[in-house]
Amino acid sequence: MTQRNPGSVIRRPGFPARLDTRNPSPPPARPAIAPGQATASRQTMNLARSVGLDSSAVRQSMVSKLAQQGMTDAAVLQAMGSIERHRFVDTALVNQAYEDTSLPIGLGQTISKPGVVCRMLGLLRQGHPGRLGRVLEIGTGCGYQAALLSQLCSEVYSMERLRGLHDKARDNLRHLRLVNVHLLFGDGMPGYAKGAPYAGIIAAAGGEAVPQAWIDQLAVGGRLVAPVSAGAPSAGKQVLMVIDKTPHGIQQKVMEGVFFVPLKSGIA
Ligand code: SAH
């Protein structure tokens, strides 16, 4: 992955958000497995070895499985092969980082399954073989998907309503020095009008409906991918929704069932 010089940050005049550009020195390498995890299973040990020495083989195996499951977007697969998912999860979970499973990231939230992330990014890019323009992500979480988006879009605005996770994402992303990722602490329900219009909007949390503000902030030709509740909210069922803003109006498609954390109002 391209490592960019932090001195070459492009500052948008008047941009009000705190950009993640202040930390030129890389943090100390995180051990793949915490010292003292003597009871780790053989699988953990094997993975620790591969993650510690070269995690790319484990990642490539994840990517191969995604391709076998029908994920065909080469750019998304390439991004998933380059971004080190194990750096975004707690040390104790590192042995599961390349399995197709969601994992806790703290504060009751989860990093989505790689298969779901791959699918949503593929849908976001569908029909746009090149790099997407400006994209808004609702729900930064640990920052993994924001890192992937940075490889696929010209600019990423990523909003998180939980301060603890916003800070965690900043820490997790620091070593990558992604000058095109803007982490925003705030409620994403009203979107982020200052960055609009967006070529794409992607949500990692599901509400009862897609907020109108997101649709308003989508560019004509842009696409929104988000989970939404299906049926009675109490049933807890969600589906993936794809919304295209065409010159002739809004087109909406309901895709497969999914399971995401709830979209909530306000900050905490
Ligand atoms: N893409 C993330 C997934 C995080 S889970 C990753 O790669 O880790 C979804 C996140 O959405 C949670 O962190 C949750 O706090 C956040 N969220 C929920 N409602 C939100 C809102 N209204 N605005 C911003 N973030 C929200």
What does this structure look like?
It contains seven helices and eleven strands. It is an alpha/beta fold and 268 residues long. It has a domain at 102-258: 3-Layer(aba) Sandwich (Rossmann fold). The strands form three sheets. The protein has a seven-stranded mixed β-sheet. Strands 1-2 form a two-stranded antiparallel sheet. It is globular, with a radius of gyration of 18 Å.
Average of pLDDT: 85
Helix and strand succession? Answer: HHHEEHEHEHEEEHEEEE
Strand content: 25-35%
* Strand line-up in the sheet with most strands: 5-4-3-6-8-9-10
So how many helices? Answer: 7
Helix % is 25-40%
Q: Tell me the number of strands.
A: 11
Q: What's the name of the CATH homologous superfamily of the domain at 102-258?
A: Vaccinia Virus protein VP39
Q: Which second-level CATH architecture of the domain at 102-258 applies?
A: 3-Layer(aba) Sandwich
Shape: globular
